[in-house]
Structure formats: structure tokens, C-alpha cells
Design a protein that fits this description.
Layout (H helix, E strand, L loop, with lengths): L1 H7 L6 E4 L4 H10 L3 E4 L3 H13 L4 E2 L1 H5 L1
Parallel strand pairs: 1-2, 2-3
């Protein structure tokens, strides 16, 4: 679904919000074309930094995932 959305809207910034904390899930989402990946359980602390990073042209992944 991310690839299809990206094909239609290539300039749109995307952040996935997910309950899945498996690093392979975030990796797949990023490879498909999303700009960020935020865990739902960390949304209170991670969403605004993710938005800031993505708008600045960077990629963002919830730090909890990076520790796995």
C-alpha cells in the first residue's frame, strides 16, 4: 500500500504509526517509501520529533526499534 501511495503522490511525506515493534516491519516500511516509523505506544514522545525530522528531509524511526 505504501508503494502504491508513493507512486501516486511522490512528494508527500509519510510517517507510519504501528503497534508492531519488530525492526523488520519498520525496515520494510522505509524500503517501501515511507519517511518515518513511529510506534503507537511511543506516540506521545516520538510523533512531534518524527514530524520535525521528516519535514527537515530526514528519516525517523522510534528509538525503541533501533535498540532492538
Amino acid at each position: 500500500m505504501i508503494r502504491r501511495f508513493r507512486a501516486h503522490f511522490p512528494k508527500t511525506k509519510m510517517i507510519v504509526i504501528s503497534v508492531l515493534d519488530d525492526p523488520s516491519v519498520s525496515k520494510s516500511a522505509l524500503e517501501a517509501g515511507t519517511n518515518g516509523f513511529v510506534l503507537k505506544r511511543a506516540i506521545a514522545t516520538d510523533l512531534l520529533p518524527a514530524v520535525d525530522a521528516v519535514l527537515a528531509g530526514q528519516c525517523y524511526v522510534s528509538p525503541v526499534i533501533l535498540r532492538n
